[in-house]
Specification:
Elements lengths: L3 E4 L2 E4 L4 H9 L4 E4 L12 H10 L3 E4 L9 H13 L4 E4 L4 H11 L5 H10 L8 H10 L9 E7 L3 H13 L5 E4 L4 E3 L4 H4 L10 E3 H4 L5 E3 L3 E5 L4 E4 L4 E9 L3 E3 L7 H4 L5 E2 L7 H9 L5 E6 L9 H16 L6 E6 L11 H11 L1 E5 L1 E7 L4 E7 L5 E7 L2 E3 L4 E3 L1 H4 L25 E3 L12 H19 L6 E2 L4 E8 L2 E7 L21 H17 L12 E2 L9
Parallel strand pairs: 2-5, 3-4, 3-5, 6-7, 6-13, 7-10, 13-24, 15-22, 16-17, 16-22, 17-18
Antiparallel strand pairs: 1-2, 8-9, 11-12, 12-13, 14-23, 19-20, 20-21, 25-28, 26-27
Length: 564
């Protein structure tokens, strides 16, 4: 083994073996960094084998597998961390040594000038010129005072309901916090109102405010998106290539409506009778279709869970049916509900009231039926349904109106990040909302893997919990509050009446009011008044302002020592 020394602290070499590990220890190297994935070629010693040998010789071994030509921010952060933790000279290796050298150069960006990095690498026999632009961008970013990215007490990624409410709750408790919100959108939307827009009850403009009007005073608004998360470096990479640092990160990114997952759907939206209350610009089209409908067939769909507000697909259906009942054409309508799931609603206590309306409106329920294609011009929807024999059959249904709800997925920036767990959702403790692997990261809202309903009401209850737990984490303390999974779904079964579903983890009923005040399992006018008149101002003027009416965080009660 003949390593190529780039600096006295770092050398790079081609693939090593057991003998080379011993030679490295004898030469004074204290750390070995492998930048090669296992299994690239026959006979290649695995990183695990060499790690065991290095550990036996009291050397540190770090594996950062790099696919040729791909150097992610997370890889660079891992390299930087390994270099910083090294207690002596470091040896990096891959097939030829080039990936190790390149990763070293990218990790040094901001600490050395780009030309110096290129010169040192070239002198050792490695051409890093392809990384010149990236090195320059990183150097420019690191040119801030102190040579590091701007660091905030709290960085909140996402300016939706969850992110804004968390910032407001934090500032209510500690006004001196240095908080940044990363959000590229120009407008903030009250999405629960789109059901009412689709029924002609609300005007769309009332559900939209400019983002600057809801950002809490004193918070820095960073008007761009997050490009990647670097939890080992405690940084967030932004869309323009710059980075910001944090003491605590709160991820409230929301989810993605995957319109493209249903062929033909995206192209048909807003025309040919195809609509969805899941978009601000389409909810008015829902009302226009329903209010001008002639007797015909209307299809309403619901994809597989998880989705935002699991009741929203059928809310659109009930309110449309009520419009047709008032117009006297309901008897001539064929209304079908195609639900990819197996039940009408996931909490059984609310199903009887909903079934009353299903029967009243003559709705044909189709469970296990998933929308898989839309032909807008041909007014044809295709569904897949698994039969009793396990075979999947395709069914085509013509329509005059189609209210479609797309599959919903984590944002790509989340799914591809170290924050993600199974399915690409952010992996948090369901009670404390703290990340299971990174104690300086919390997450809430639609982006997490918590098994609660993804609703604004859930975010409203999560935000104060996250706020007090973030403050505890800033002091180096354990979480002090817990979230019980509360979510609310006001099921608008007709104009003027709502079944107010309120429940938590495991489907436990969690009513806000005593039953004699408001029985959520029955359709009531009081629940409609709450949805129509009270919830919008509560959202804009309480939730987003840190006023925690009826949602104060619940403290974690220490376990009683039974031996005491």
């Amino acid at each position: 083994m003949t390593p190529k020394q780039i600096t006295p602290e770092f050398s790079a070499t081609p693939q090593i073996d057991a003998v080379a590990v011993a030679e490295a220890e004898a030469a004074g190297f204290t750390t070995i960094i492998c930048t090669r994935p296992d299994g690239e070629e026959d006979g290649q010693p695995s990183a695990g084998e060499l790690a065991r040998l290095a550990t036996a010789l009291d050397m540190r071994f770090v594996h950062i597998p790099i696919t040729p030509g791909t150097f992610t921010d997370a890889d660079i952060a891992a390299m930087r961390g390994a270099l910083d933790e090294a207690e002596g000279p470091v040896l990096g290796y891959c097939r030829s040594g080039a990936r190790a050298a390149t990763l070293w150069g990218l990790a040094e960006a901001g600490r050395r000038e780009p030309e110096e990095i290129l010169f040192l690498a070239e002198r050792a026999g490695f051409d890093l010129s392809a990384q010149r632009e990236r090195l320059s961008r990183t150097a420019a970013r690191k040119a801030a005072p102190g040579g590091t990215a701007k660091t905030y007490d709290v960085v909140i990624v996402g300016g939706g309901a969850a992110g804004i409410a968390t910032a407001a709750s934090l500032l209510k408790r500690r006004a001196t916090l240095d908080i940044a919100i990363v959000e590229p959108a120009e407008f903030h939307f009250y999405q629960p109102g789109w059901t009412m827009v689709g029924a002609g009850v609300f005007q769309p403009e009332t559900t939209r405010h400019r983002m600057e009007s809801v950002i809490p005073c004193g918070v820095t608004w960073i008007r761009q998106g997050a490009a990647s998360f670097l939890p080992d470096a405690k940084e967030v990479a932004l869309a323009d290539g710059s980075h910001i640092g944090y003491r605590i990160l709160v991820a409230a990114t929301g989810l993605r409506l995957a319109w493209e997952a249903v062929p033909g759907l995206a192209e048909s939206l807003g025309t040919h009778g195809v609509t969805s209350n899941y978009r601000y610009d389409l909810a008015p089209y829902t009302f226009r279709l329903a209010s001008t409908m002639k007797p015909g067939r209307a299809l309403f769909t619901q994809p597989a869970m998880p989705i935002k507000c699991a009741g929203a697909p059928q809310k659109a259906m009930y309110l449309s049916c009520d419009i047709w009942r008032s117009a006297g054409i309901l008897g001539g309508m064929q209304v079908e509900f195609h639900n990819a799931g197996g039940v009408l609603f996931g909490v059984p206590a609310y199903v009887p009231a909903l079934m009353t309306y299903v029967e009243r409106y003559g709705i044909d329920l189709n469970f296990g039926s998933t929308l898989v294609a839309v032909d807008g011009p041909g007014r044809m929807a295709t569904f897949e349904r698994k039969g009793a024999d396990g075979e999947v059959e395709r069914i085509e249904r013509g329509f005059d109106m189609l209210h479609a709800v797309p599959p919903q997925k984590p944002l790509d920036v989340i799914a591809g990040s170290p924050l993600a767990g199974a399915g690409g959702w952010i992996e948090v403790d369901p009670a404390t909302l703290r990340h299971v692997r990174y104690p300086d990261i919390f997450a809430l809202g639609d982006a997490t893997n918590t098994p609660n309903a993804k609703t604004a009401a859930a975010a409203r209850n999560q935000a104060p919990v996250v706020a007090v737990n973030v403050l505890a984490a800033l002091k180096g303390q354990a979480p002090v509050a817990y979230y019980n999974g509360y979510g609310s779904c006001p099921l608008t079964v007709e104009r003027g009446k709502i079944v107010l579903a309120e429940f938590g983890y495991g489907g436990a009923l969690l009513p806000t009011f005593p039953r004699w005040v408001l029985d959520g399992t029955r359709p009531t006018r009081r629940a409609w008044f709450l949805k129509d008149r009270m919830l919008p101002p509560i959202y804009w003027h309480a939730m987003l302002k840190g006023r925690e009416w009826l949602c104060r965080p619940k403290p974690i009660v220490p376990a009683v020592n039974e031996a005491a």
